[in-house]
Amino acid sequence: MKKILYIIIVSQLLCSCAFSKKKNLDTSKDVLTTGLNKIDNLKTTEDVIKFAKLINPDFDKDNFGQLQIKSTDLIINELSDCSLYKTWNIQNWQKVDLNNDGKTDLLFTGYWYSTYHQYIITGSESNQYELFNLSDNIDYACKILKPIVIGNKNELLVNSYKTDPETVLTEKIIHFVDTLTYKFDSFIEKNNKPANYDIQYIKFISENFFEIEIDNNQNAHYTCLNIYNVSSLKDNFYKGESSEKIDKVIFKDISELLDYINVSDLPNEFSIDGYDFSTVWLEIKFKNGTVKKIKDYGYQGTYGLNAVYNKMKNIALQTDWK
Hints:
The chain has helices at residues 2-13, 45-55, 72-78, 84-87, 138-141, 165-169, 248-260, 303-318, and strands at residues 31-33, 93-96, 105-112, 115-123, 128-135, 145-150, 153-161, 175-183, 186-189, 199-206, 210-215, 219-224, 240-245, 269-270, 279-286, 291-297. It has 322 residues and is an alpha+beta fold.
């Protein structure tokens, strides 16, 4: 638990608000433009480590130990409370087309910040690489992923765990198996029966950091207070309050994502065991007048919700607030 607590605290600091050049900040992925799909050429673990550090330079910093990719046997031995890693025959790294775009992607288990994570690096048609952190709870909760084939598509099997407050209060980890698919530029829970809502507005609040609301008339309102002034942070949010117009495609994309994850059917609250984690709130108003509110303590609600959070954070970072 201490390891996970430390990771979350660090991720909280990355959300501080200050004046800076705005660019895409998504703590689950980093982007690097290149002219070649280098994933196809990776042959050894050393090649994979070098490539991962190229995609995410933070992996190469000594602050908390550089990224390691240990052997599969060593990972199995050290994850003594996660026997499923061996049972599912997960490898320390492998190449597979996980977003089904015809290009080779990379799935690897990295040891960083003194804990194990599972990452995916995908390559797009525009020759950009994206890094996704899909599990940083392997040591604590055996949250692991394995590529599978459903029909003619590659998907991800995930050994997830319940994070509703009632379950967390029992101090027991209750696992369930789910399937992730690549949609809306993210890996989210596969759903064969999406809803069809008529959404009026979407509001996202990051505790102590910023609040942003967008509506179906292309309006965006943003508020950010510089409560935590840490000068060493990068990719900081704009400080202040502002209203701007946004492209209608942005609202449409997030609305369709909320349809896909059936947001109104999700629990109203998610939580994890521990203290001093970050909390986010999501609020959606529908045309029929109903309002759905979700409180997520620890950012561990669902993969679909995290995709929504990231899209809302990107609006906050990419909009030219004045």
